[in-house]
Design goal:
heterodimer; A: 115 residues; mainly beta; 4-stranded antiparallel β-sheet; 11 strands; 0% helix; globular; B: 112 residues; 6-stranded mixed β-sheet
Chain lengths: 115, 112
């Protein structure tokens, strides 16, 4: 069966510090991978998605970046965090790259607080 | 502008009672509509996915309906349990697995 992992679970970082959040998927090959951010009381906002190694599409311009160095690994990074980067970050995957109407499976999330 | 609006914003009901959550959307082109359940501090978990041709879909005590003409959906929860306390999120796919428009969710609290 497929599982998705995210770490760390919680993170408190000062403004201006770097960020690296990691997401890995097990039990599937060539998944579509997604990074979302959820602000308190708000809907999920898609940040990045990837259909393959090294292929990243950005949905929202910001000081975050994403990379996919391996098929089942997705990394969210920042060189300098802003207060507005605080939120709940979720990684998700779908099978059958490019398919429509396929289920998105979410990881447990990372709660980031920028102080 | 593609939007998904949910009502009510929050709802408190007693254990054992039924409730209905609403979702209105202005998304075009339409591919499918999904309902997710999100426990506090956890990732969302899918309840149902409905395409244009489906009017209703059930998952245990959860029943979702879709009216593609009026662009409305509802999620009905029967015989609520304490474990149903969560946020319920309506999501509409605009013809692509990448373009998901997320509602802000309805926060449901079940009281004993």
């Amino acid at each position: 069966s497929q599982t998705i992992h995210q770490w760390p679970a919680t993170l408190v970082q000062p403004v201006g510090s770097p960020l690296s959040l990691e997401c890995t998927v097990e039990g599937t090959s060539n998944p579509n991978l997604y990074w979302y951010r959820q602000a308190a009381g708000r809907g999920l906002q898609l940040l990045f998605y990837s259909v393959g190694i090294g292929q990243i599409s950005s949905e929202v311009p910001q000081n975050l970046s994403a990379s996919r160095p391996q098929d089942r690994q997705f990394i969210l990074s920042s060189k300098k965090l802003l207060l507005s980067d605080s939120g709940f970050y979720l990684c998700a995957w779908t099978g059958l790259a490019g398919a429509v109407s396929y289920e998105q499976y979410f990881g447990p999330g990372t709660r980031l607080t920028v102080t | 502008k593609n939007q998904v609006e949910q009502s009510p914003q929050s709802l408190i009901i007693l254990e054992g009672k039924n409730c209905t959550l609403q979702c209105n959307y202005t998304v075009s082109p339409f591919s499918n509509l999904r309902w997710y359940k999100q426990d506090t501090g956890r990732g969302p978990v899918s309840l149902t996915i409905m395409t244009f041709s489906e009017n209703t879909k059930s998952n245990g005590r959860y029943t979702a309906t879709l009216d593609a003409d009026t662009k409305q959906s509802s999620l009905h929860i029967t015989a609520s349990q304490l474990s149903d306390s969560a946020s319920y999120i309506c999501v509409v796919s605009a013809n692509s697995n990448y373009q998901l428009i997320w509602g802000a969710g309805t926060k449901l609290i079940i009281k004993p």
